[in-house]
Write a structure and sequence with these properties.
mainly beta; four-stranded mixed sheet; single chain; four-stranded antiparallel sheet; 1 helix; about 140 residues; elongated
């Protein structure tokens, strides 16, 4: 696969497939995410620029964590737009959550276009020291 084909593949994955039925008439993007483990938690960081903090919706159903962000183009009275490279659209992404996560303690924070999800490990999944019996 050439570099150009790889770039096209990545670009295609940046938007939710068009065959997905939506109730809003705008583009829908799959937000890029970083997932890392730190101590007793798994952290998921998603880029969702242009979203108002009140327009973020997170649901958890049947071990599927759904993240949605809804944007609206704001009209500006104090200037006229000459060129726009930023595309307005919604964001949608889903993650399958295992039983190793304590689902009742998942937390979310949104600031400056970045959504941070904290998924604490369930007690059964935490590392523990096992005593060795001698004799």
């Amino acid at each position: 696969m050439t570099n150009q084909e790889k770039a096209m593949e990545v670009q295609e994955q940046e938007m939710v497939p068009e065959e997905t039925e939506r109730t809003r008439e705008c583009r829908c993007f799959v937000p890029r995410a970083d997932i890392y483990e730190l101590g007793e938690n798994i952290h998921v960081v998603l880029d969702m620029p242009g979203i108002n903090e009140n327009a973020v919706e997170i649901t958890l159903e049947k071990n599927i964590l759904n993240v949605k962000g809804f944007s609206q183009l704001e009209e500006q009275d104090h200037f006229s737009l000459i060129r726009a490279e930023y595309e307005v659209g919604d964001y949608e992404r889903s993650f399958r959550i295992s039983d190793a996560i304590d689902q009742s303690k998942i937390e979310a924070a949104y600031k400056n276009g970045v959504l941070m999800l904290t998924l604490p490990k369930a007690e059964e999944a935490k590392a523990r020291k096992i005593a060795v019996q001698i004799g």
